[in-house]
Amino acid sequence: xxxxxxxxxxxxxxxxxxxxxxxxxxxxxxxxxxxxxxxxxxxxxxxxxxxxxxxxxxxxxxxxxxxxxxxxxxxxxxxxxxxxxxxxxxxxxxxxxxxxxxxxxxxxxxxxxxxxxxxxxxxxxxxxxxxxxxxxxxxxxxxxxxx
Length: 147
Fold this sequence. Notes:
147 residues; two-stranded antiparallel ribbon; 54% helix
């Protein structure tokens, strides 16, 4: 009786997961917040944000959340102010059709008024007040100091 042993020339199978060593993490230490910019020549260099820029970044995030919250509230109020549309008449008589047309005209005017209020509120709170402030903050963060 003969036994033939064969060897596989491929790399051995990796060990099971429970035999793998734990991952090595770099030691915790000082972490710098660095941004990378390209200059006019296209060369990359690192610049650090100043303390004022970090404060402006935090304030800008707050203004952004305020804008998002007001916009969500505005659309929620719009949806709550719109009544359900009138139901179509079950019997098609002249009086029921005229009543349905009157109800539809009234519904259209109510929806138009609610939309107009929502647009005015959005325009006053977001477009006129908060959006210019938000844009100025972004400009401060992204802008460069000129010598």
